[in-house]
Amino acid sequence: MPLFGSKKNPPAQTVTTTTTHTPQRSSGFFGGNKRNSQVEPAQTQKSGGLFGGKRNNTVPTNHHAEPHHSGGGLLSRNHEDNSIVAARERVIAAERSEQEADRALMAARQSVKSARDHVKRLELEAKEEARLAKIKQGQAASLSKRGKALGRHDHS
Fold first, then answer.
1. What are the residue ranges spanned by the domains of the chain?
2. pTM for the structure as a whole
3. Which has the closest alpha carbon to 35: 76, 1, 79, 69?
4. Where, if anywhere, are coiled coils annotated (predicted)?
5. How far is CA 118 from CA 13, 106, 122, 146, 155, in A?
6. Rg of the chain taking only CA atoms, in angstroms
């Protein structure tokens, strides 16, 4: 008896394979995506490079001119990495938050300035009222002196 339970004569299996070609996107560093929309049995040549991009150049066996789609590569806005898109959105949100914070800070500074100006006006008003009260007090004292001089001809 075998150790792992394998059989010496496996039954013959018939393998039927069907291949369907689904176009796959590939992109290079700076180059664009190149692919054929209809692919028939063909010979595929792969070439690539740092600036030329990775391309699948498919040569159809029936030699019909096939339309191809070309577009951006790694730095294209048509197809960007999700992490780049998410990072860009976070940066934009942070910039917006900074702008709102700047507006709030300016509003707070304006409010503080307004409050300080109000306090200064109150101090000036109080100082002026104190000055006027001092004048009034002096006038009242003068009148009081004059009032004491009255009554020397008192008939009591």
1. 33-71, 80-148
2. 0.39
3. 69
4. 105-132
5. 96, 18, 6, 42, 58
6. 47
